[in-house]
Batch of 2 targets.
Target 1
Amino acid sequence: MTRTKWRKVPGYAFLSVFALFSLFPLYFMIVSSTNTSQDVLGSRLLPGGNLIANFQALIGAADLGSAMWYSAVNAVATTLAALLVCSIAGYGFEIYHSKGKDVLMAVLLLAMMIPFAATMIPLFRLFASAGMVNSTFAVILPAISTPFLILLFRQASRNFPHEILEAARLDGLSELAIFARIYIPTMRSTYAAAAVITFMTAWNNFLWPKVILLDNAYQTMPMLISNLSAGYVTNYGVLMLAVLLASLPTMIIFLVLQRSFAAGMTGAIK
Amino acid sequence: MSPERRRNLTGWGFLIPAAALIAVMSFWPMIEAFILSLKTGRGLRLNFADPLWYNYARLWQDETFKLTLGNTFIYLIIQVPIMLVLALILANLLNNPTLRFKGFWRTAIFLPCAVSLVSYSLVFRTLFATDGFINDMLQGLHLIDQPVNWLGQTGTARFVIILGLIWRWTGYNMVFYLAALQNIDHSSIEAAKVDGAGAFKTFWYVTVPQLKPMILLTAIMSTNGTLQLFDESWNLTKGGPAYTTMTMSHYLYELSFQKNPNVGYGSAISYVILILVAVLAFVQMKVGDKRD
């Protein structure tokens, strides 16, 4: 090997070690979901034949179908609502720019600094007094409008060509139609990035659903696996299968959309 | 109405849903939490405390609160710098145009971010169980004679939480640095190399300064996240042993939503978190904004 090739060794070594560190717990989770509890504790790192038995035990111990359903409803509804509300706001801030809107944007950005921990108690009291404890709506509503997404869409809107806008206006398209028919299709990669972020956050959210969903009949996947692990006897094979099932949707979505995700992020940070 | 004016109004119309939601879901509760923090009483019977700052004064005597505050700061001070430096190094390596298998590295390092905090906490709990994989491996390598009770001792339990946080969030921060690196001019890096600067010098004197705004952003986001840590404390260690790994948010949850809720006192803690986030963000902005 030449000298320059040797120089690259530390970089590749570092990346390899870190990739191993990143992937190993995921590999362990996948393999363990097919093993018995004893095998998991016996540090078996090869796939076993216990997947179906684990699955049956899991269905017997928890209402998996309902938790998957509530998680999916929450995540999909939050994502659709957030994409609509935040993209149209980001578009509004950039395309119809004015001094007053800059001030409003600065105020909204301040909300990024408000920790959820500081608003959780009043939000619970608000939804409780509205009779919305255990309701899906109460889970979704606080997650729809986020300054981060608005900012992402505002930054990305800078790349939206103004000539097209003018042409569409001359053609007599209404402002809302321009947004719906021209903006949304052109900004596909930004929408993809925003969808990945929002879906993952909503699907994985734990604290707020735990606070507002008092009845376990409405529990989401993160709540289900947390409760499962709090039982007396932990069956590690069953637990790892549940954890895997709770993680699959977000992992698949990320793997499918990662190209657009990276493009959307790069386009927004300029 | 002129088209100009109508368009301006349309623009405002586009902002209203988002702004209204943020006002009702963030700003109003923030104000309400402050008012609640001045009240005492159980359940629905709340009255203004006498003196008004009673709940805040009580915090000073609360040993459990002090412990959770200290724990949260231990995580913050140790984990955030390690994670951000690792993310910077990884992003810099991945930004090299001649690097092979780029897609693989990026996916592998970012994939932990797709996993929920609850999920990874439970995977780490299984790995670090007394009869679990990590102990088996360390014993197999003859690094330890006896299994370590990782989650049952303060020091090691905190270590596992910090390791978990690094695992979950390094790739996330790396993506921000990568995005920023792709937008900076690669010629400045080439120029430094032509001038004879080594890899480290180029990284430290050319790349890092250009990433300063992004480093500031990630530092503020990580601080904000760490101060609100809940899922790991709840699922990985249950806050134990004896509250020594419990975070402020975990304590806040216990006080406000479990057993005999005391929302006034809970709100005071939530306000301490809010003030800490604000103060630390302000300090970081001041430090990060200095021009050299």
Target 2
Amino acid sequence: MLSSLPILSTLIWLPIIGGLLVLFAGRNNPTVAKWLSLLTVVATFLLSIPLVTGFDTTTASMQFVEQVAWVPMFNIHYHLGVDGLSMPLVLLTTFTQVLVIASAWDVIKERVEQYMGAFLIMGGIMVGVFVALDSILFYIFWEALLIPMFIVIGKWGGPRRVYATLKFFLYTFFGSVFMLVSFLYMYHESGSFSILDFHGMQLGMTAQILIFLAFFLAFAVKIPMFPVHTWLPDAHVEAPTAGSVVLAAIMLKMGGYGFVRLSLPVTPDASMTLDWLMIGLSLIAIVYIGIVALVQNDMKKLVAYSSISHMGFVTLGLFLVYDILQNTGSIQGAQLGMEGAMVQMISHGFISGAMFLAIGVLYDRMHTREISAYSGVVNKMPWFVMFAVIFAMANVGLPGTSGFVGEFMVILSAFKANLWYGTLAALTLVIGAAYTLWMVKRVFFGQITNENVEKLTDLNKREFAIMATLAIVIIALGVFPAPLMEVMHASVENLLVQATTSKL
Amino acid sequence: MNFVIPDFAPAIPEMVLLALTSFILVADTFWAKRSQFATYYATQIALVVVAVLILMSFSTTQIITFDGSFVRDSFADILKLFVLVISIGIFVFSKEYLLQHKFFSGEFFVLGLFGVLGMFVMISSYNFITLYLGLEIMSLSMYAMVAMRKDSGAAVEAGMKYFVLGALATGMLLYGFSMIYGATGEIGFAQVSEVISSGNADGVVLAFGVVFIVIGLAFKLGAVPFHMWMPDVYQGAPTAVTLYLGTAPKIAGFAIVYRLLAEALPGLVEEWQSLIIMLSILSMVLGSIAAIVQDNLKRMLAYSGIGHIGFLLLGVIAATPDGYSASMFYVIVYAITGLAGFGMIVALSRTGNEFDRVVDFKGLNARNPWLAVMMLIVMFSMAGIPPFIGFWAKIIVIEEVIKAGFTWIAVVAVITAVISAYYYLRVVKAMYFDEPEDNTKIEPVSGSLNWTVSFVALSLLVLGLMPSSLINLCYQSINSLAL
């Protein structure tokens, strides 16, 4: 029975329809809103499991494909499908959604139905971004996501939420419109809006460079890369916990996904010519933004900067490819970098989500995120600190956690490309350890100096379940990442071929 | 001299509309004493009757009658149908507004009907004289409507401004017409086009003629730098009238742009294309920047309307049947969106309170979450953010301008779209994030108003999810003319 169900459409529309239902049914009745939301996200997650069990890891072609003509006049299709690059991201999304709804359970008091509804709708839209194979459909999901996020940050956020949410919206909107112009240009050249057709089309160098830059604006803002990252710390600091989780765990991945789905395969020659730009900005993100993270007083801001720094590994791993091939000719080396980037995306999704949830737990109790307001939390919340330290270790990239796998792969391939790249990238192990552990020391350990900390209570069952799930996933991926890599393998191989085949 | 009886059949909808309007005009004096709403209902019935007539005789071929002065084709029929549908919406909103603001009178509806008649004539015009006639029927009705509220200084001032500048624009247009006539010796669009393409006309005179015609059109459409009247008139006029000015006439305005530039003067495309590029870019840039500082929503929508005209002209720049189709789609979408936007202001305004400042929308989500969502849809659709229909309108005109080889204009267009997103977001911000000035629940004046405004706003979403049929309609109607 399940095999006949259009899984991808279900994963998109079930949460969206569920979200609309919550908006209506949950009005003036928070309990109904919460349970209906939980039911929807759990059902969506369960329905996404057949994606894994039915996935064919031997092929790089699209699977679970659905295609219907939508606007025939312009050859626009409702075209969905997943491969090894997008399937893990879909799963990351449906999984994170469950945690997001659970994390907001008792925390949100005002207009619960709007909050939950917004997150459900976001969930469907995000799946849509990862599975859309028609560029216009992709763009529609990409932009539509801004609307609920705008509302969530602006309504339930902190004191400077309006400034932050406007900045977030306008930055990301500004980046994406140029992507739209490139889509339209490519449609004009090829007569099709299909992303797969874009992969196969010939493009001159000037066109490639311009398209690459347009894509770069869209994805670099989203990921975000230095110097267009400034919206992210603002958005994170002001967003409610669940908003930060979605931002860090999934929305940033959309930028990385854009690079692998569009930039590298559509404009390989431009990617090769401009790889110095990407590598340079990635290294700046890793080192400079890491140092910026060191001086933050606000925990969320610290993790936000650490996210930017860690996402630098994604772009670094992807664009090292050309240097590795040039210097060593090692295809395995190039593939290692790319696969590392992909693993880093998934792993960062879990780790950053976990970090923000942990900060959320503290914030719910103390209503502050100032590092200096805390000290000695471990005395009052031992269980919480146990999980938080696991997450912090994963953030540092300790072997045995998922954070290690991706970063290690990228650092290894960076050394293959250039000694300096490797050295700079490896610096993150020092800087990352410095800011993370210093925060851990100041917040969790030491003497209790604040009477509010004295009154803290440890995790309740709901929080415990959320934290434990994440800890298990993070350690499981760290100890045994093979299944994840196996899923990606064929697609990454294919991506490498696409990224290195000239289109001139 | 032979007198040939012309074929009246193609103009039956116009004639019926004229007859019904005249009847209502006379009957209103009797009805007004007995039943307040008789004129209103008669107006709506008249519009429906005309719509049915058009649908029944929907033309698939081009019919030209009255000695080449009047044309009936699917392009005209579709635009007229949309004018009717939008007008029905306008009158529904107006009825409540006029009641609330205590100047409900039959003249409003009669003038409105005459305006619709003018739009019909404009849409179907096939020579300069008919076009001028239609334009004046429409404009005179609108001048009177703007100034209808005699006790409001702002409205009278707006009416004055509108009249003086509108007359100036008409003068420009007529001057242009006369030059084209002088150069070609013809007034029919088809004949003018023929003479120009034969190359027997004086190029200099033609070029001057085109410049004046384009200036006249720009005045009427409100394209920069001939836009100055728009913000003042929109703000000064009673909202019901602004609603009227900002929606249906845009459709007729596009129709005359198409008739003049694409049907009469296609041979002079090189002359007018560069002018339209200038108008389009200036309108997009100024419309989006000037709207940022507006605190009055009507004024903001006027500037945003200027920006929309700039976008609309993108399709005209392409100067291809597909380009005109894209503009046609744009103008229809804009009219529907405008109806929803101004309709929202009408729905929320109360006696003595216009509800037209951005601050009035503060905390609307707390006071009426449903209407807040509807307004959110309208704002995001205007900003061109998917999945609403405004997105498709923008992407199609941009695609056509890229196809015509002007990628740089497309880039300018999207940048202005981002700038304009800011002021649409301001409204959303006010509704969702700001504290309301008072916390009383706010409802539309009447249930029917609630339904209408929700229906129009939701149609923006539904059309956005299923844009295909409306796009096809526009492309087919213009492509059938080009063949």
